[in-house]
Amino acid sequence: MNRYGIHGERGRRGTTALLALALAGGLLLTGCGGGDDASNGAQDTTTDSRGSGMPAPDGPRYDGGTSTGGAGGTGEGEKDGDSRGVAPDPDHLSTFALDVDTASYGYARRTLAEGRLPDPTTVRPEEFVNSFRQDYERPDGDGFSVTVDGARTADEDWSLVRVGLATRPAERQGERPPAALTFVIDISGSMAEPGRLDLAQEALGTMTDRLRDDDSVAIVTFSDEAETVLPMTRLGDHRGRVHDAIDSLEPTDSTNLGAGVETGYETAVEGRRKGATNRVVLVSDALANTGDTDADTILERVATERREHGITLFGVGVGSDYGDALMERLADKGDGHTTYVSTPEDAREVFSEQLPRHIELTARDAKAQVAFDPETVAEFRLVGYDNRQVADEDFRDDRVDGGEVGPGHTVTALYAVRTRPGADGHLATATVRWLDPDSRDPHEESGAVETGALDDSVWESDRGLRVTATAAYFADALRTSDGGYDHGDDHDHGGSLPGAPGLAELSERADGLADRTEDEDLRDLADAIEEADRLT
Fold first, then answer.
1. CA 179/CA 361 separation, integer angstroms
2. Alpha-carbon distances of 214 from 183, 272, 274, 354, rounded to whole Å
């Protein structure tokens, strides 16, 4: 395996042999800011399949459990949870479900602010990258625009290639469908810590005043058992009832997360409104310690309600001790996403701005597939999305879950790509496929990039790409076993991305971006990198 954790020809032959043995034995492995317009050099094409039943791409399936360079990855990855592989010729496909989670980055910032490096297992690079909104071109209607661009790194023949997807801008409050929101709130003893339940109560109170009269709210609490303290209630003249229920919340006893999820979905189903966006919002530190603590059992309940009633889950994580992995799995199984809040400003942004603005869905079961041209690309690696990989042949199988995306969202995927020496011409084509949230009709949109459109240097590229690279390099540093790679060596660490600077240099570059843009989000990123550099 080479320095970037991507298999060469010998590794490919070995993986292929292992796969053949596995299949012969009957084993089958299967598996969702700011910046300038990043469309420099991209070429866009459009395809609308509308249920045309287009065949899955030809080519052998690569299914060795370590694939991001091709098809069929199980999502389990290697022992460190990082999927690093390259598909054998002629399979140069990479397929994954879209993901708009940002909790991993928020939790890492909280941990660093407390003077600790985050546990590498909680660092998901795609969530760092997607914490910064990009100025991709927006589509006119529902669906996505597709932007593909990239830049070369300091390492010979290696580039970073970015796939950017964007939905239409969020509608004004009066133009979206009504919402039926069931809040499932953790009131266990651990939520008594400042910055947990108190923070959620303040933000929920503000949100209640900002929702529309035709929106509905229900509140379920859980500690050692679950209770519906407010059935689904149309706001209208009843905001006082909602405020009273929020104000009455007090921490107590242990955390029966399973009971909370089950009761929350039962309440959501009972109060489900036709023509409204029905959603469960789980607010918790996700530290289940009593009752049903088995993740798979809890997850199956979420999946069942999602399939039968189309109710999505939005997970809001709180607390310095936080069950990151469980919350992420819950949201993935519930076709939703997660975020993390640690300050009153974070909470107000999530509950009072993001949630009301993004209540509506514009795409269900959205998946992306990137086809790299074997004539120009020698190998590649998808950065992150380890838990979101989809078998290549399932890209157009609309029974296979993807990600749910709302208006105003951007999704970014970053690839490390080694081009063949002297390669010139088509590099990659990215396609996103999604279902209309109402009719469930499938649609697709594509974009392509040529080798000649790659910028000469990541650090002299479009500002949005520089932000993406900075966030990805930061996450990659935090995932290494020693917490970083700024130790004066040649950066020859298996997990490093090509062209990876040391943390000290990365901190300087982030600081420069923040100074030039006066962007508070970039300033927070620069501060976090500086703290990580100090701790390593």
1. 11
2. 17, 13, 13, 18
* Residue 504 CB neighbour total at 10 angstroms: 15
**pLDDT > 70: percent of the chain:** 78
Question: Which among 341, 339, 281, 344 has a CA at the least distance from the CA of 313?
Answer: 281
For residues 109 and 115, what is the distance between their CA atoms, to the nearest angstrom? 10
HEC states along 185-243?
EECCHHHHCCCCHHHHHHHHHHHHHHCCCCCEEEEEEECCCEEEEEEEEECCCCHHHHH
Ramachandran quadrant class, 250 (left: phi over 0; alpha: psi -120 to 50; beta: rest)? beta
CA dist., res. 26 & res. 9, Å (int): 26
Q: What is the three-class DSSP state of 442?
A: strand
How many Å apart are CA 129 and CA 411, to the nearest integer?
Answer: 9
State how far the Cα of 121 lies from the Cα of 180, in Å rounded to an integer.
34
Distance CA 272, CA 305 (A): 12
Report how many helices (DSSP H) and strands (DSSP E) the chain contains, helices first: 13, 16
C-beta neighbour count of 174 within 10 angstroms: 7
Question: pLDDT tens digit string along 312-341?
Answer: 888 999 988 888 888 888 887 777 788 999
- Enter the tokens of residue 219: 């509140």
Q: Tokens 């409104």 — which residue?
A: 273
Q: State how far the Cα of 466 lies from the Cα of 149, in Å rounded to an integer.
A: 12
d(C-alpha 453, C-alpha 42), whole Å: 7
Which DSSP category does 455 fall into?
B
Pairing status of strand 277-284 against strand 312-317: parallel
Look at residue 173 in the predicted model and tell me its pLDDT. Answer: 56
> Which parts of the chain have pLDDT scores under 50?
1-3, 5-90, 481, 483-495
What is the number of other CB atoms lying within 10 angstroms of the CB of residue 512? 14
227 bridge partner residues: 221
3-state secondary structure of 28: coil
Q: Using CA atoms, how far apart are residues 446 and 370, in angstroms rounded to an integer?
A: 9
Whether residue 178 contacts residue 276, with contact meaning beta carbons closer than 8 Å, is answered with yes
- Rounded to the nearest 5 percent, the helix, strand and coil shares of the chain are 35, 20, 45
Buried b / exposed e across 333-368, counting CB within 10 Å, b at 16+?
Answer: bbbbbbbbbbeeebbbebbbebbbbbbbbbbbbbbb
- 3 state SS of 55: coil
Taking only the tens place, the pLDDT of each residue in 62-91 is: 222 223 333 333 233 333 333 334 444 447
Q: Characterize the bridge pairing of strands 158-166 and 377-382.
A: unpaired
